[in-house]
Amino acid sequence: MKNRIPKNLVSNSKKICIICEGYEEYDYLNRLKQLNLWNKNYSVKLVNAKGIDKVFSLYQWHFQSDRYDIVLIICDTDMNPHTSFIDILSKVDELHSNCVNRNDIIFFANPCSMQIILNHFKKIILNSNKKSDNADIIKNLTGIKNYDAKENKRNSLFSKINKDNYNIMKNNIYNSNQTFNIIGSTNFIKLTTNLENNNIDWINNILDQI
């Protein structure tokens, strides 16, 4: 007779790994974790790729490690022609034999993740991913001068993220275009919706495709 796991020990908890392009994405998601905004069904591990060129190799390694129920990605599209982002899309397609909906596992912002972050303070579309171009916008919305993404500036920025403006951000991006090559597009709302959802079927649906 097979051993049965007692019902009280059966858990629906899912282990999720999110590959973050860089420090901004990592620190931002870590701040959201600290605020306990996501459902307790999920144990989320964040990995800092420290550059878009390392995103796919880390995704592949963690996916093939079988340590997690699902592995996801968050990164910038950068500006047209989106070369590095398209390379990630192609490699993910190849890894999964074109069987998975990429928008279910790759979460992006065009041109950059700062656009999602600034939507905590005001509905806005950035036209550039350059920090020098966005510095005045960041100052006007957050009061942080000469933002350069260094640790002290990131700490100041993410200390301003809270539960109230998290909901503002979701409202601001809710109807965003989700076609990656359009300025202002992002599918980040899908990630927040999934991580807040008590129902884990969204993970099972992805796994059924792979």
Structure description:
- The protein is α/β, with parallel strands linked by helices and 210 residues long.
- It has one domain.
- It contains nine helices and four strands.
- The chain has a four-stranded parallel sheet with strand order 2-1-3-4, sandwiched between helices.
- Strand 3, helix 3 and strand 4 form a beta-alpha-beta unit.
- The longest helix has 13 residues.
- The radius of gyration is 18 Å and the shape is globular.
- The N terminus is likely disordered.
Structural descriptors:
alpha/beta; 4-stranded parallel beta sheet; globular
Give a topology summary.
Layout: E1 14-20, H1 23-34, E2 42-48, H2 55-65, E3 70-76, H3 83-95, E4 106-109, H4 114-118, H5 131-142, H6 151-158, H7 163-173, H8 188-196, H9 201-209
Parallel strand pairs: 1-2, 1-3, 3-4
